[in-house]
Each structure stands twice: as C-alpha cells, then as structure tokens.
Amino acid sequence: PTPQPAEITIAFAGDVHFEDDVRERLADPATTLDTVSDALSAADVTVVNLETAVTERGTPEPKTYTFRIGPEAFDALAAAGVDVVTMANSHGVDYGADGLADSLAAAREAPLAVIGIGEDDTAAFQPALIDVAGTVVAVIGATDVPDRTATVWAAAPGKAGVAAARERRRLLQAVAEAAESAAVVAVYLHYGTERVDCPTPDQVS
C-alpha cells in the first residue's frame, strides 16, 4: 500500500521591509529578526512578502513611498527561518531599471528562494519547489494591485519585472504547470484594498 504522506506545515507572513529602526539591526543579519525567528522557523516552509527593492542604486519611482535595502536582507530573512520570499508587490521595483537589475542579481545569490520577479514572465512566474519529507511544495508569487509596479514593471516575454496577475490566464497557467511536479501548490497574491480587512468581490472571484 502507498504510505500516507507526512503532515507538513506552511506558514505565511505579511509585508516585510527594512526601514527605520530595523535597518540598524541589519548590521548583524544573523540576529536582525531574532525576536520572531522562533515563529518563522517553526514551519516546514515559511513564506513572506519582501516589499522592497534590493539595491543601492537607481532612481526612485514617482510614488509616495519607495523602499530599498542591500542583499543582506536576504541573509537576515534566511537566518530567521524564512524559506521563500516573493517580490511581486508594490515596492519590488521602487528604483527603476538599475534597481531591478540589482534585485535580480541579488536574488540569484540569495540563501533562500526568491519568487515573483524575473528576467521575463516565465522566470517571474516560476515557482519555488521545496521537498518536505517527500512532499513537494510549489510556491508562486504574483501581484494584482493596480499600481505602477504591476503595470510599468510587469514581466513579459523578453522584459524583466514582477509577476503581474492582471492577466488571470497567465497566473492559472503557472498554477497548472506547478501542479504537474508538486503535490501542494500555494499562491501568494499581493492584492486587495489597503486598510480594508475583508476580501473584495474581485479577490473572491
């Protein structure tokens, strides 16, 4: 008989950036998030939304808030027990083309999986695949917030950017493809209306 798969735990946290007092703690990435590391590392797979560009260069986008940090942010998250970060959000490309190039380069060297951003739409929608005791978990990141990042910086064939879910068929295609090689597919969507607790009709749909 086929044995039953072991129970696994997947944890999702919300938006993360390294502004204000948290930036100072990045001097030691191993302890930056030590106050929450027990919670983050308790799950078999932990996913967070890294809402910042990973760069020290570039020109800020024309928006009210722009966030950026160096690649040590990836080290701090990995040290705290995070396995996957999605950069498909409103701030993943806050510093233009140069910032995007730096983020992609840093993601390639990161000690954890980085999803939701890529050299083209295929890469941006590529899932992280994690084997947990024989159960393969696929995690896809996408943004559906109607802001400049999801329009100007949406990844497309031959164009780097974030995984934008405005075109539903593209997201559904990514899910179907991930399901071919994973027992569990989790989609981390950055969407909804800020400061509204309940899902919108569009979210439900």
Give a description of the structure:
- By secondary structure, this protein is α/β, with parallel strands linked by helices.
- It is about 30% helix and about 25% strand.
- It has eight helices and eleven strands.
- It has helices at about 20-25, 35-40, 70-80, 95-110, 120-125, 150, 170-180, 200-205; strands at about 10-15, 45-50, 55, 70, 85, 115, 115-120, 130, 135-145, 160, 185-190.
- It has a four-stranded parallel sheet, with no helix packed on it. It has a three-stranded mixed sheet with strand order 8-9-11, with helices on one face. A two-stranded parallel sheet has the order 3-4.
- The longest helix has 14 residues, at about 95-110.
- It starts with 9 loop residues before the first strand and ends with a helix.
- The relative contact order is 0.16.
- The model has no long low-confidence stretch (mean pLDDT about 95).
